[in-house]
Amino acid sequence: xxxxxxxxxxxxxxxxxxxxxxxxxxxxxxxxxxxxxxxxxxxxxxxxxxxxxxxxxxxxxxxxxxxxxxxxxxxxxxxxxxxxxxxxxxxxxxxxxxxxxxxxxxxxxxxxxxxxxxxxxxxxxxxxxxxxxxxxxxxxxxxxxxxxxxxxxxxxxxxxxxxxxxxxxxxxxxxxxxxxxxxxxxxxxxxxxxxxxxxxxxxxxxxxxxxxxxxxxxxxxxxxxxxxxxxxxxxxxxxxxxxxxxxxxxxxxxxxxxxxxxxxxxxxxxxxxxxxxxxxxxxxxxxxxxxxxxxxxxxxxxxxxxxxxxxxxxxxxxxxxxxxxxxxxxxxxxxxxxxxxxxxxxxxxxxxxxxxxxxxxxxxx
Length: 365
Known about the structure:
Layout: H1 5-11, H2 14-23, H3 33-44, H4 47-55, H5 59-69, E1 75-76, H6 78-88, H7 95-108, E2 112-116, E3 120-124, H8 127-144, E4 147-148, E5 153-155, H9 160-175, E6 178-179, H10 188-197, H11 223-234, E7 238-241, E8 244-247, H12 249-254, H13 261-276, H14 283-294, E9 298-300, H15 301-308, H16 320-334, E10 338-343, E11 346-351, H17 353-358, H18 360-363
């Protein structure tokens, strides 16, 4: 459970309290834990000081901070922290830079090394400091983001992925077993029949397309269907047999039984993030920033891109534009998180009701 700064100070290491007190130049009895905590609370909760601290951060420190506070987790392992630091450092092999950056966050009272029960040694970010920093950051970013009135054309897929997943399960059930090619792909005849039943259509891949990095069947199928297939396989609803594909017992039991839509969509959303972050390391942070930036209105796609582009690297044949538009925004549309719109030929991005619900814990003040 997430803790606020006062709770963390009360259980953190005494030496860390000393380091924080020196950082904030506290005037108190350094041998009294109670006085140290009270003095630090007064310093850390000063909003003007917090704003100044944020604006004094280096580019690398800002990247590290964003990954911590725009992650929905509140507890991080040593490996988590190391990975986020490596993503932030210009020189990923600079272990001294990682230690220095982590130490500076601990001294500020932004990151705590704690040891609790089965969790063992881990790092946590105070929830109240996190929310205040998010508001400071959003105030800055929203000044750079261009907002428009509601567009005349809106594309909203809502829960289409949920219904098409049931179409996939039912189709395999009716066929009994679907033959596949030597490469493991569903034959074109069956794939066309299936796509005709889907509420959101896709074009089949053309021969010669070189695709990899976004899932185990991304090289065989178009974006949306490859995610749907990979999720279904990963969850154990289907199994691949020699020259074929069929439902498992779990898959057969799912036929005609409609689970909660939002539960399904959240599950495949989290699966998508795990799969795609291999190619886009900062994906969870980018997704959270998109949601927070568009939750109160329609934002121009190009202004979102200008804000986020520094964290969106190219991936082999995908340049940064393709990664942002096809691998992030388009997939968020399929996942029912965002809506796409257009106003005077300007592409816009807005948030769906489901997208709001999915991240409501971030929006709580």
